[in-house]
Amino acid sequence: MEIYFITGNINKVREAETILKDIKIKNIKIEYPELQGTLEEVAEFGAKYCYERLKKPLIVEDSGFFVEALKGFPGTYSRFVYETIGNEGILKLLKGVSDRRAYFKSVIGYCDENGVQLFSGVVKGYVSSEIRGDKGFGYDPIFIPEGYDKTFGELGIEEKSKVSHRRKAFEKLREFLLKKI
Q1: Mind telling me the catalytic residues?
Q2: Which residues are annotated as a binding site?
Q3: What are residue 126's DSSP bridge partners?
Q4: DSSP 26-70
Q5: Binding-site annotation: residue ranges for Mg(2+)
Q6: Spacing of C-alpha 153 from chain mean position
Q7: Is the overall model pTM greater than 0.85, yes or no?
Q8: Would strands 115-127 and 101-112 be described as parallel, antiparallel, or unpaired?
Q9: How sure is the predictor about 136, in pLDDT bands with cuts at 50, 70 and 90?
């Protein structure tokens, strides 16, 4: 089986390839409007929009970082917020806040001739008090997953991929796709 992964993020493609090892992933970038809504709404719209253009089985993925004390902010605006205020800004917003619970959520939209299916994954944890580890991938240097004392940035890609929100969503997608083969 072969599916297209619509993304410009090669790290997401690599992660998908390791999890979906029985399925051939072809990466292609198609620009599509990103709705303002829930992760589910964004993934569903993106999958439908891209399928109308490509007419091949495909996936899109949207994810967000949600901080409990900030009422879920930055949530679906994670990329914009990261590009605007970065990890430093999130830490500044949480200065003096004891409730540092947070989570990452990923939603994958799969679309083929039968329509869209959504698969989600969540990893819970909390926001560290300082930036720790690799500073190259979003909020990873400030997020400590449950059961760990290191940030995603300190864990590195291999260890992070074992427990990530994206892995959980891709495993659900893999299970669904293997039933179709």
Answers
A1: 62
A2: 7-12, 34, 62-63, 137-140, 160, 165-166
A3: 101, 144
A4: EEE-------SS-HHHHHHHHHHHHHHHH-S-EEEEEEEEEEGGG
A5: 34, 62
A6: 15
A7: yes
A8: antiparallel
A9: low
